[in-house]
# Entry
Amino acid sequence: MNDLGRLEDLPADYVEALRRLNLVPLWPSLRAVLPPGKPRPNTRPACWAYETLRPLLLKAGELTPIEKAERRVLVLANPGHGLERMQASAAMYLGMQLLLPGEWAPAHRHTPNAVRMVVEGEGAWTTVDGQKCPMRRGDLILTPTGLWHEHGHDGNEPVVWLDVLDLPLVHYLEASYHVQGERQAQHGGRSGRAYVGSGVVPAPVFQRSEQAYPMLRYPWADVRAALEALAANQPQLESVQVSYVNPETGADAQNILGFHALMLRPSQTLRLPARSPAMVFHLVEGDVEIRVEDQQFRLRAADTCCMPGYTPVTLVNGSSSAPTFLFVADETPLHKKLGVFENRG
Ligand code: GTQ
# Structure
């Protein structure tokens, strides 16, 4: 590879004359924006242990009333991007949100898409577009772009969930904003259990739903049962995985980020190929070692980690007797829509 001219190689008055006209020479920066062979991601492998984060999140509950926070969240910020940028990867934002008994996080809607993966506690709910979605460990609740949402809590213990948003991307696009709203009237709306039978969808008078997001809540009990059934039915299947989809169309549940659940059989080692999108893993149940490049991360229940794209990742179930269950978020729908998706094996 030939060396390209540097900025310092140019006369200072020439560079200054360019700058005054808002002009920049490409060649000193060409390799930075188009590196050879593969990208140089800022996203680093990073892991957040729930045990270390939890007391600090509960402390936030003492320090900052919900009225002063609106959303009481500690952001899982990837140091490779700089913490103040609050991003886990190029397109993904992760936050751990705390709601205490009796609290209410007021209604708003915004352009970024969000999902909640419930981590701990009982009694909280999110109302999305008028549908009250109860929150239990492992449930996935969608808050797609533009839909009103608010969080409330009728229980008596702290509730914590993981927020996954495409906020860094939408912010980068200069398309991120929110609108405050009134407390929503709760209506039946989409029936929470309407899509429980796989292969059939409700069709009143043979009219299928035309809603863009017909299913908002994916109970963990159903997802876990689907994984166990898949593993039992296909003993040779290496990657026991399901994807969260729109049950009317089979397309990804949301437009930009993809969501999946994965089961590792006892003692299983699963090598995931190097693909262009970054990935997030959240351990719902079990024990896993994640190997990436020359690093290893040991995840216990409720731990979360982030991995850059273009990098193979190996998952090892640390238990020889029990399965391990992971929730996975990634940037695959975005990469596929943009035509930059790659699987390098
Ligand atoms: O719960 O609506 O972590 O608006 C960041 C922004 C959560 C939310 C976040 C949000 C929310």
Q: What stands out?
A: The longest helix spans residues 50-63. The radius of gyration is 22 Å. The helical segments are 12-20, 30-33, 50-63, 66-69, 167-172, 220-233, 332-338.
